[in-house]
Amino acid sequence: MKTFVLVTPENVEFEYRIAGVVRRGLAWLVDQLLVATAVEAVLVPTTLLIPAFRGFAMALQFIGYFAVTTLFPIVFEARDGQTPGKKALHIRVISDRGTPPTTSEIVVRNLARAVDALPLAYLLGGLCCWLRRDGRRLGDRAGGTIVVEHRGLASPRAFRSPDAGRFNTFLEDRALLAKVRRRLDPEDREALIDLCLRRAFLEEGARLRLFGLYADFLRSRLPGTDLTGLADERLVINCVEALLAGPKKAPGAVAAPRI
């Protein structure tokens, strides 16, 4: 079984099980059946227009075919890293940083399919997946992604608990919220968000240690603030929720008119 090991700046290792060629191939076949069905749904009604509007109907068919075949994997993978085929085979696309892939990474990896598909039936892409230790085809290398077995990847919404935001001091206290945003530079914010995104991958001991370190960091950056009632993990998550939340309007405030 091939694995991909990622070492974070905190010197914590994440080991991912790389999705095998067979599993990826089966996922691709499932997706192709769905794509074929969608293409037929586009081609059949436009075919009826050919006798009267031949040029227009054929243009619609070409555009529809291109849109379905190109956008199908991009739309699904940009949402949660899984097409229907990948979801059925329990595999997922993630970035080689161990976080959910960005839209640009998904677009690049899928546009490169034209090369991976050469000379036929994804022979080049399949050979790359089989021969490379990290199991990446050319599109994965270009986009900075890997395909791994599904292990419950967290997303910005997934790390929130059911009561997220309801008892969040950072969101309720506007002065504290402003203080957090003022005291944390972009690198600090990125590190906190990145930790929460990787939360589902961490073993319990490593998770407690890392959240403890970042909680101590937050307390040191917010002197004079009473944060003793919050557990380390909740403190970090509450802070990240506040950073991701939009600016909160004061009661009775009227939005400024657009100029």
Protein model, in words:
With 259 residues, the chain is mainly alpha-helical. The chain folds into two domains: 3-149, no CATH class; 169-244, no CATH class. The chain contains twelve helices and four strands. The chain has a two-stranded antiparallel sheet with strand order 1-2. Strands 3-4 form a two-stranded antiparallel sheet. Strand 1 (3-7) and strand 2 form a beta hairpin.
Helical fraction equals 55-70%
**Distance, first to last CA:** 59 Å
Strand order, sheet with most strands: 1-2
Order of helices and strands: EEHHHEHHHHEHHHHH
Gyration radius, to the nearest Å?
Answer: 23 Å
Structural category: mainly alpha
Q: For the residues shown, what is the average pLDDT?
A: 82
- Domain tally: 2
Please give the number of β-strands.
4
Specify the overall morphology.
elongated
